[in-house]
Amino acid sequence: MHPDRAAERRGGEGVNVATDARVLIVDSDVHGTQALARLVEQHGYPAPMLASSVWKAMETVEDSLPDVVVFSLYYPNVDPLLFCRALKQAHPLLPIMVITSSGASLGEIESLRVLAGGLDAVLERPLDEARFLAALEDVLAKRKLLSVSSMRAAAQAISTHGPSVELAARTILFTDVRGSTQLLETTTTQMFFKDLNYRLTQQGAVVREFSGEVVKFTGDGLMASFQGFDRLTQALRCALKIVELEKEQAYQHLPMPFGQGLCDGLVVCGHVGEAKHERPDIFGWPVHLAARLCGHAPAGAILIKKKDFDRIDANGIAHTHAGFLEFRGLKERVECVQIGLPAPTESLRHG
């Protein structure tokens, strides 16, 4: 908000208050969304961003971080508390205002605040406009008072509170050997798997060094997950460390160069398999894209979405713009950055 904005509203005067705060409204009810958007605009805020699904909301948050999210609690086809927790894990500083259905008790509202990892405002339908606008100003004002240390503490508290979150913000890393078929033709199978297991063991240790976890091994590579406030930075540092290890061991072991792919976003965490042999796994668009990026990355290189790369401190990291790349299963091209090797000059496709 602008510091010189008129901070007080007098009853019945309908004062328009100028502000540059960006509001994201998440609701499947088109008419309700439009009415709330008009109310926000009439009081001096820019035209709000609108999302009709939680997946679109998370994508909007990552692409153009809003200053506050207004979320309709009773959302179809998704547990709204998981969505709120995922947002708070990813962006502890981002205020979330929840609008409940009529009749919610004080106890229910307090439970919502705890279970969702800390909601900044809970309002009941039918929505009182004056109360909504006052709450909006209040959460935006409080946001300015938060420090970086308090943000990190909040993210840590949410990530360790209660049972594991099924819907969560994660950075996904894939690694994969380049030319494994050719390597098998030039050495014994025993030697190949001995060196491969040695490399993957090292990579797993590096993942844990940077606060990540190995989700699974994928034959000749691995899939890792990073969470928390600085998950994207930690994942990239992990990938860079893996590149350095490969350079150090280039002449000590069987040549086994890896490509790597990184992607950040909202994923679904769950368990798969037979009842007695279930294992944790992660699903979602970021997993799919990270795998595609990895498959597209040249040996010794890391491929990452430009939007993700722009969110980190890239000082001292050698990188090149890889252009807009096409991937199987994705309708639109993805703008990418390549780290570790010069970007190819011709159009790239992943079949």
What spatial form do the alpha-carbon principal axes imply?
Answer: elongated
Radius of gyration over all CA atoms, rounded: 23 Å
CATH topology of the largest domain: Alpha-Beta Plaits
How many separate structural domains? Answer: 2
Largest sheet: 9 strands, mixed
CATH architecture of the largest domain: 2-Layer Sandwich
Report the count of strand segments: 14
Low-confidence stretches: 1-18, 157-165, 342-351
CATH class of the largest domain reads Alpha Beta
Number of helices: 11
Strand content: 15-25%
Tell me the helix content: 25-40%
Going by helix content, strand content and strand pairing, the class is alpha/beta
What does this structure look like?
By secondary structure, the protein is of the alpha/beta class. It folds into 2 domains: 23-159, 3-Layer(aba) Sandwich (Rossmann fold), CATH 3.40.50; 167-350, Nucleotide cyclase, GGDEF domain (Alpha-Beta Plaits, 2-Layer Sandwich). The chain has helices spanning 30-42, 54-63, 80-90, 106-115, 129-143, 148-159, 180-186, 189-209, 231-248, 285-296, 306-309; strands at 23-26, 49-51, 68-72, 96-100, 121-124, 167-177, 213-217, 221-226, 258-272, 279-283, 302-305, 319-327, 334-339, 349-350. Helix 3 packs antiparallel against helix 6 and helix 8 packs antiparallel against helix 9.
Write the layout of secondary structure elements.
Blueprint: E1 23-26, H1 30-42, E2 49-51, H2 54-63, E3 68-72, H3 80-90, E4 96-100, H4 106-115, E5 121-124, H5 129-143, H6 148-159, E6 167-177, H7 180-186, H8 189-209, E7 213-217, E8 221-226, H9 231-248, E9 258-272, E10 279-283, H10 285-296, E11 302-305, H11 306-309, E12 319-327, E13 334-339, E14 349-350
Parallel strand pairs: 1-2, 1-3, 3-4, 4-5, 9-11, 12-14
Antiparallel strand pairs: 6-8, 6-9, 7-8, 9-10, 11-13, 12-13
Helix pairs in contact: 3-6, 8-9
